[in-house]
């Protein structure tokens, strides 16, 4: 089976862009990725277009990729539309890898694009309402929020303004972690402060202002223990990656020195399990598969991008990826183990909390960052000597965990 490489990446800034269409952002990201790879659009053998909420926001429920790509000359090839909630783009990336491994071509494109921001706030926040079983959505939301029962919510710790119902769910996960392991609000705040400090050096990030732990704690509350800077914003944006087989690299005359090898690409769905059974969390299981496929372990990772839709997400995921023992994610974050220059830098891009979270683009946004790091091209946020990198991206909720999760390992 052939080795697969990422040979080009492109990404728009993430943010709130009232005047940019999905088509325009897709064109910008794809043009950047093709230019980075040194490949013309007519050399692409297949394309995987990831998007989660365009149907909800704009009514474009079908043929999203075919519409977004045709004007830039990508037509007449297989175009596959991918929707897997917040894991859409990493799922599309995984499918592009499989497309090439199956011998369907030499060169493939994976794209994620999303336009989420709207002046219609009810429409915007309701985009997340189908990220679980809608047949009993209120019951599911309440059950997940109740995971944190037993941890007192201080007076004034809930926002009077509208916010995504997923924040109540993440707060439930956070309070369960606090109840089980003694994790503190200060430790969650340390995650957010670290990510905001990282994003100050990322010109494509939605937010670029560094924050201290005290500033994060003093920020407006969302729902305890989460304050506003601990939560990912509503974002627009797009990201793209060009992938090639080893033979394709030669045939297209591409520079192997800038090609980054895909060492593992794993996609899993969740399972029914008790909430306290952390060792069988789907990301934990996906990480084990990825490490086995890559022939590597957590100790071999130089840098990671994880799905921190809230700060608690990063704490949970660095435990799932094996960087620390269960229950040690909070203390490790407060010590600075996960900052650039620390033992295992996590989210040097600023993560979802600060870089932004256009859900259908997020997974390839992570790939963009890791490829940039492995090439040594990340500037002031560069992780020195990065050799292997891992990305974790989850989507939706089913039971007591994400409905889907992807773990990807890239390396020199």
From TrEMBL:
Domain of life per record: Bacteria
InterPro entries: Thiolase, Thiolase-like, Thiolase_C_2, Thiolase_N
Gene Ontology MF annotations: acetyl-CoA C-acyltransferase activity
Domain Thiolase N-terminal positions: 4-209
Pfam families: Thiolase_C_1, Thiolase_N
The Thiolase C-terminal domain, residue ranges: 281-398
Protein name: Thiolase family protein
Species assigned in the record: Aquicoccus porphyridii
